[in-house]
Specification:
The protein is α/β, with parallel strands linked by helices. Helices cover about 40% and strands about 20% of the residues. Helix 2 (about 35-50) packs across helix 4 (about 80-105) and helix 3 (about 65-70) packs across helix 4 (about 80-105). It is globular.
């Protein structure tokens, strides 16, 4: 299966975690570590080997805040938002300078791209970012992508580069996402808790073909203070790429030869891949890139019409409106406590709260020229 996947790879997104490029060899604590030039130099050589195979590479790199901590000598376990933003501002330039130095030695040019959720939520900006990446790749330049942490708050508080790497892989139409972590992959238990009986030790799961609730529960929080996410965010990232028809590999990036082993077809890490057809580009953007601004709870009849018959959501099927949103916003659609779909809404939250549960004829008289028959049209709706 892995060799078949590799045959189709013309473009790969590689996400490098902070823990992977920190100086583990220094003997410092995790919070005291800075960038490891040795590791970045090694990855520059490995990525040169990949480009020599004719594969285009996009990097999504963490490490800006870690590098800023190092430059500002901030080793406290907690930093407030302005301190994190300051670390990101000084660390991002240092991180890029380090990448540029070692990639240049391999004859490779790099370019920095900073993205935030706003760039991905707005379709025009999303396409502009996509076209920029395409133009760089056409010229043999390796884009290095990071979140714009120095001027944003949400990305630092709840964002992670696992999610960003999945969005970039889908945006760029990559055929493979490789997430370099500081663990071997997804285990069937907690790998950090050694058991007395080696036979009962958690085992690596080599292949996941579907992200279920049980799989999500297996992914615990990260214990690395340098990391924003953990295995859970990697599983969610894989969930996004799988729906877009892109395999994801989660592997241990502390193994300096891991990229060589991947492209040799070795069975390393955990492969997330179902082999199913992808959701169309725009619907994937609705389902996995936009941040929902609210939630609509629907009745059993509306749920059946949406899920089983592929129908639009009508006002009569809406029983509850949560959140504050405007026309065109992304919303979750929930039935019996479970999210069944996401879509772009044709009414503001205030207007929808007034017309929920009403028949079409009554609504037309109430709202006049602002009338839409559908709350969410089926062309703007994605079943989850």
């Amino acid at each position: 299966m892995r060799r078949e996947i590799l045959k189709a790879v013309k473009r790969v997104v590689i996400k490098i975690g902070s823990g992977v490029i920190s100086d583990h060899e220094s003997g410092r604590t995790a919070l005291e570590r800075g960038l490891s030039e040795k590791r970045i130099r090694s990855y520059a050589r490995r990525i040169k080997h990949i480009t020599d195979l004719g594969v285009e590479v996009i990097l999504v790199s963490s490490g800006a805040i870690m590098a800023g901590r190092q430059r500002l000598n901030l080793v406290r376990s907690t930093l407030d938002i302005p301190e994190k933003q300051a670390c990101a501002a000084i660390g991002q330039s240092f991180l890029m300078r380090t990448y540029e130095h070692f990639f240049d030695k391999q004859g490779l040019k790099v370019a920095q791209i900073l993205l935030g959720h706003d760039d991905l939520e707005h379709r025009k900006r999303f396409l502009n970012a996509k076209h920029t990446i395409e133009a760089l790749l056409e010229r043999g330049v390796i884009p290095i992508v990071n979140e714009n942490d120095s001027v944003t708050v949400d990305e630092i508080k709840i964002g992670d580069n696992d999610t960003l790497s999945a969005n970039v892989a889908c945006m760029a139409g990559a055929q493979l996402l490789v997430i370099l972590s500081d663990v071997d992959g997804l285990f069937d238990g907690d790998p950090a808790r050694a058991r007395k009986n080696a036979a009962d030790a958690p085992k690596l799961i080599p292949h996941v073909d579907r992200i279920t609730a049980d799989i999500e529960q297996l992914a615990g929080k990260s214990r690395n203070p340098l990391s924003v996410g953990g295995m859970y965010t990697k599983v969610l990232a894989a969930k996004k790429t799988m729906s877009f028809g892109i395999p994801t590999l989660v592997v241990n990036g502390l193994d300096g030869k891991i990229l060589d082993r991947i492209f040799a077809g070795a069975a390393v890490g955990t492969l997330f891949w179902s082999g199913k057809n992808k959701i169309r580009d725009r619907k994937h953007w609705i389902a996995h890139t936009l941040k929902p601004a609210g939630t609509l709870t629907v009745d059993a009849g509306a749920c059946k019409a949406i899920v089983e018959r592929g129908k639009s959501l009508l006002p009569a099927g809406v029983v509850k409106v949560e959140g504050a949103f405007e026309f065109g916003a992304s919303v979750r659609i929930v039935s019996d406590g479970s999210e069944i779909a996401r879509g772009l809404v044709n009414y503001s939250s205030g207007a929808l709260d007034r017309i929920k549960g009403m028949k079409t004829s009554a609504i037309r008289n109430l709202v006049g020229t602002d009338f839409y028959e559908e709350v969410v049209h089926r062309d703007d709706l994605v079943i989850l």
